[in-house]
């Protein structure tokens, strides 16, 4: 399919209505939502860009101009200029030796254009733009004596570090005790603490397990995520619309439970999470996928509004055809109050690996194996 044809099909898939800016009197700011869409493709020049794992690990420069895409297993980072729409450089990391990066990068965080955090399930290290390892950090269970073994293994979940690269935050959890916590560790002082998140305890039940002798398979449907802002940490999950926020200045925890009118406010925990047969395990996965799932929380600076997608997968009788979903969009004010919701009937799946730039939502699309974005302009 040509780029022009693909762009047209994306437009038909994503575009909705006209350019109405009518305001609703119902209190639902998304009641009359419409949006336009454009498709842009990054020019790689003479370089090949590996999209094997898609840009699941990316970050933007503080001015939102540069897009840093960390390839999870190849040891390279590609940097694109979103204004000029072209590749501007590659950063090659070593896989062995004193500057080695993880064989498979679990998470990536950008601090400035010369400092990055790369992790796997155990190793946490800072690197510069020349590929030199600046320091490794012992962020582990030894810093939190009260953690269980399971919580120690999951300590890396949702890991984020403040702008000064000093204070670490994560979301350890334990299915046995149904406990989820916000872990906070100051690497300069060695002080640590756990903040209990009791309303999220049920989310630990969403990991399905199949054991057959020494073999093990697992599937999780309620991933925990953490968004770190200047003065607060926001904790959310794909299994619920509810949100925790922890005020870093006031040292206070807040919980928001929502009652959307168009879709369930959260998924139901499975009655059985461990299976002894592959057939039952697959059936459990099918039931979990058919439930509501909530996406990331996106901040639109131009409107001072958060947006969040939700979706429900629909059964597909033909496995050769792409899966389809009912897709919904929620809007929240700065205090995380729900101020709008709508169904996006033209969308067959929610946007993936997205971000807001200049008041528009950019979401990843593969255009003939080149890095591209569908740029959505909301009107309401």
Question: What's this model, at a glance?
Answer:
This protein is mainly β and 380 residues long. Helices cover 8% and strands 43% of the residues.
Written overview of the protein:
The two termini are 33 Å apart. The chain is globular and about 55 Å long. Strand 19 and strand 20 form a beta hairpin. The chain has helices at 3-14, 149-153, 278-289, and strands spanning 34-41, 58-60, 66-70, 76-81, 86-92, 107-112, 115-119, 124-127, 133-136, 160-161, 167-170, 173-174, 179-186, 192-196, 207-212, 215-220, 224-228, 232-237, 240-247, 252-256, 274-275, 292-300, 305-314, 324-332, 338-343, 354-357, 360-367, 370-379. Residues 1-23 have low confidence and may be disordered. It has three helices and 28 strands. It has 380 residues and is mainly β.
